[in-house]
């Protein structure tokens, strides 16, 4: 029987930390940019402009209907050819994951916007609120509150999906882990620790989502 | 009233607070209001009654600028503020802001506290300072017996409290006319009185109002004038003793008997 020596992993803690930082940088940037795209697309899909609605719907369905890995490969290898510019690995990774996050979160925002009922609009008109005040102080806060739990879930998914960038050579946590596991020949120890690092970060967030959701629904159920 | 009637600009005589002239509105082929004329004097409290589908609530929504109209004009204090013009409805928002409205289903903003609901419009539209608006809001809530709920959220309030907060929110904008659209219809019976009490208080301060209600006790106690409408037309219009006590129109009599079991 094989004996396991987890102290091997400790020797590479600096490299793993660098990988984790890359993963977090990539994920946080993509979540922020993706959420802005998602909200804009959700609003655009309520627009009266049919062309705009069609473009947005196509974008969303395309990115939801194709594997993230294929999207990553396409943006890493095809986009530079088409644009004729070299993109750094991180920039390509952020573009790919932001576009994916944008498509997924736009559905989240769309559902949240729908829950702000027409009677809220009536109240806003009755109080003489101009439409920019209505959007900023009535619609947006309610939509954001309702979207927050699913948006956090989307973010956790993206954090986990981000491991796919290792396939295109971006030195994230997964990529570093794989390298260490290959050079040391100790895949069990290294990959177990890598999995645990992902879990330790993702799990508390999913718990927060559950608690937050319960509290918020109580508050907004009026 | 003929379908082709045209409307003279309703400047009206200075004594009318509100003047509805030749009002017609509908959704596509379905006509909801089939030509309505109402002149309301300052200090009047008009109660609108009628079967469902008579257009009572629609009339209030039109007066609030919430619906498109096909024909007619409404003036307030002599100023035309809702005008049908070639299929479009023109609304003068400056004039319309003098009118406040409370709806059947509370329509409070659920993400804002009671105080937040009250000061949003004064701060963001009228440009009042937060401290000044909050001070007015607290004083108003105290008068309505809600000072202990200032920081509560709508979900934590009873139906009666929600509706009183909705009234307070409208009063924050210092309206010159209040519209109440079935404001007690969604309430449990034991909560109706506290809301009607607040409206009666307003009446005692001479606030002009137009009220749609199905509560006969309330109608009798608050109305200075009752309008009975059916199928988008005004059938009878007069003092409460007449319309509720001794109606001239057979349809009014029949409605009161059928719905309220009032033998006249």
From TrEMBL, chain A:
Residue ranges spanning the membrane: these are 20-44, 72-100, 190-212
Organism of provenance: Pseudochelatococcus contaminans
Keywords for the protein's UniProt record, in alphabetical order: Amino-acid transport, Cell membrane, Membrane, Transmembrane, Transmembrane helix, Transport
Q: Which GO terms describe its molecular function?
A: transmembrane transporter activity
Which InterPro entries does the record cross-reference, listed alphabetically? AA_ABC_transptr_permease_3TM, ArtM/GltK/GlnP/TcyL/YhdX-like, MetI-like, MetI-like_sf
Question: Which cellular components does GO assign to this protein?
Answer: ATP-binding cassette (ABC) transporter complex
Q: What is its main location?
A: membrane
UniProt record, GO biological process? amino acid transport
| Membrane topology of the entry | Multi-pass membrane protein
Q: Which CDD domains match?
A: TM_PBP2
Alphabetized PROSITE patterns for the sequence? ABC_TM1 (PS50928)
PANTHER family reported in the protein's UniProt record: L-CYSTINE TRANSPORT SYSTEM PERMEASE PROTEIN TCYL, MEMBRANE COMPONENT OF AMINO ACID ABC TRANSPORTER
UniProt keyword annotation of Membrane present: yes
Protein known as:
Polar amino acid transport system permease protein
Q: Which Gene3D superfamilies match?
A: MetI-like
Signal peptide residues on this chain, from the entry's feature table: none
Where in or outside the cell? Answer: Cell inner membrane; Cell membrane
The entry sums up its family as follows: Belongs to the binding-protein-dependent transport system permease family. HisMQ subfamily.
């Amino acid at each position: 029987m094989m004996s396991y020596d987890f102290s091997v992993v400790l020797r590479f803690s600096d490299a793993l930390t660098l990988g984790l930082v890359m993963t977090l940088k990539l994920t946080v940037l993509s979540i922020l940019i993706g959420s802005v795209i998602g909200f804009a697309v959700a609003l655009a899909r309520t627009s009266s402009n049919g062309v705009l609605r069609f473009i947005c719907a196509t974008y969303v369905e395309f990115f939801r209907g194709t594997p993230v890995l294929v999207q990553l490969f396409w943006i890493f290898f095809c986009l530079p050819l088409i644009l004729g510019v070299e993109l750094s690995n991180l920039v390509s990774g952020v573009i790919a994951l932001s576009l994916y996050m944008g498509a997924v979160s736009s559905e989240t925002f769309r559902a949240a916007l729908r829950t702000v009922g027409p009677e809220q609009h009536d109240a806003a008109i009755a109080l003489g609120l101009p439409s920019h005040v209505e959007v900023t102080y009535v619609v947006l806060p309610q939509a954001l509150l309702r979207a927050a739990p699913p948006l956090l879930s989307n973010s956790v998914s993206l954090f986990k999906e981000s491991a796919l960038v290792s396939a295109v050579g971006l030195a994230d946590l997964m990529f570093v882990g794989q390298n260490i596991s290959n050079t040391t020949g100790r895949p069990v120890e290294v990959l177990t620790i890598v999995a645990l690092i992902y879990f330790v970060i993702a799990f508390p967030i999913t718990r927060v989502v559950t608690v937050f959701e319960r509290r918020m629904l109580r508050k907004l159920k009026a | 009233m003929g379908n082709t009637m045209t409307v003279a600009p309703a400047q009206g005589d200075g004594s009318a607070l509100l003047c509805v002239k030749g009002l017609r509105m509908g959704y596509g082929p379905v006509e909801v209001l089939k030509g309505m004329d109402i002149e309301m004097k300052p200090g009047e409290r008009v109660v609108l009654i009628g079967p469902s589908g008579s257009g009572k609530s629609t009339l209030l929504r039109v007066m609030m600028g919430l619906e498109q109209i096909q024909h007619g004009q409404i003036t307030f204090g002599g100023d035309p503020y809702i005008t049908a013009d070639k299929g479009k409805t023109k609304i003068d928002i400056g004039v319309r802001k003098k009118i406040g409205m409370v709806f059947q289903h509370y329509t409070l903003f659920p993400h804002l506290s009671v105080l937040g609901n009250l000061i949003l419009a004064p701060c963001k539209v009228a440009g009042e300072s937060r401290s000044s608006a909050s001070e007015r809001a607290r004083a108003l809530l105290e008068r309505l017996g809600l000072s202990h709920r200032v920081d509560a959220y709508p979900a934590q309030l009873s139906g009666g409290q929600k509706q009183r907060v909705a009234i307070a929110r409208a009063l924050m904008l210092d309206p010159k006319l209040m519209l109440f659209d079935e404001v007690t219809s969604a309430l449990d019976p034991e909560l109706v009185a506290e809301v009607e009490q607040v409206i009666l208080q307003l009446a005692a301060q001479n606030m002009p109002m137009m009220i749609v209600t199905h509560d006969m006790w309330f109608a009798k106690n608050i109305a200075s004038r009752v309008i009975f409408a059916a199928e988008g037309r005004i059938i009878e219009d007069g003092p409460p003793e007449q319309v509720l006590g001794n109606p001239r129109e057979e349809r009014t009599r029949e409605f009161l008997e059928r719905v309220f079991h009032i033998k006249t």
